[in-house]
Amino acid sequence: FKKITNELNFNNSMEGKINEITFSINLLLLIAHTLFMILYIAVNAKAMIAIDLLAIILYIFFFKRCVTSTTIYAQIVFIEIWFHMIAAVLSFGWNPGFQNWTYGLVCAFFLPSLTNGKEDERPYWFGLLFVLIYYILIFAVRILHFPILHPLNEYYNHFLFVINTLMSFIGIFAFTLFYTSKHKFKEDELSKKAGFDELTNLYNRYTLNEIGNKILSNNSNFEIAILDIDHFKNINDTFGHNSGDLVLKQLGKILRMFSSEGIKSGRWGGEEFLIYSDGSISPDQFINLMEKLRKYVESYKFKIEKGHINVTISIGVAEANNLVSLEENISMADQNLYRAKETGRNQVIYEKNGI
Questions:
Q1: Which of 18, 110, 117, 205 is 20 to 30 A from 124 in CA distance terms?
Q2: Residue 99 CB: number of other CB atoms within 10 A?
Q3: Do the beta carbons of residue 283 and residue 319 sit within 8 Å?
């Protein structure tokens, strides 16, 4: 199973989760139809044996293909299940409860329109169509008393009614869990996107303010650093804005690499980045880390569209305290950044409490 998991790209992304669920559904349907085949053989229901055999072949064919052709697979599955259900009701009658599959399948059609936020009437029409088929079967079997092709004894009827009702409830539960989980996953992704800078995949300014105020409320002293790329305008003017974006992306990757417990970093705006210590490391450790970061960037070959370039950064560091606001603490670091750029760039300037 682990080998199949790797082949079919089961991961923590929404696509990976959908692939995993689709594969699991196909596997369960294959097992269910195999068990039904045993029953159909036992009661010598030749028509249902042929129908079920085709279904088993179908699910074997889609054993791995179900995750690469999800839309086509879903449509075929719905058709197969509905056809199988109608054939089973006409073959065995109403008492075994095959018609109960309707509840889970109708749920599968109504839930997508409720969870994806799109105005699409098609699921409702399909759902109503299947409800109509359900009542047509009632009319045919219960009122017109169509002849049952394979009457079953009371034991089989009770046993199958329990199994089919259970399958219906499992279907409702599975579809509800799937679509609500999918909806929550989308919400989490939107929330993550709202809190992160799209270009660098670091925290954005809004999130940095939230993190900073939280750290400020829990610590009397901590360090704040503002990092700025030296001569970034020249990079854009000389190599183009696409190259400038590539530099920002790679710097974001470097900052994530340098992030450790007690360090939070994000894009403050433009070519400026903000870095916090949460107070769990000493000022000296933080300064050493900033100096190590500066040297690493200086020696790093940034890949751009036309080759590689060298980039340097200037960093202003201040010891923040909870006697003033976060904005004032950041302003102290910004003043030190200004001094670093005015006195030669490519350096770290640190002053304790602005003194």
A1: 18
A2: 20
A3: yes
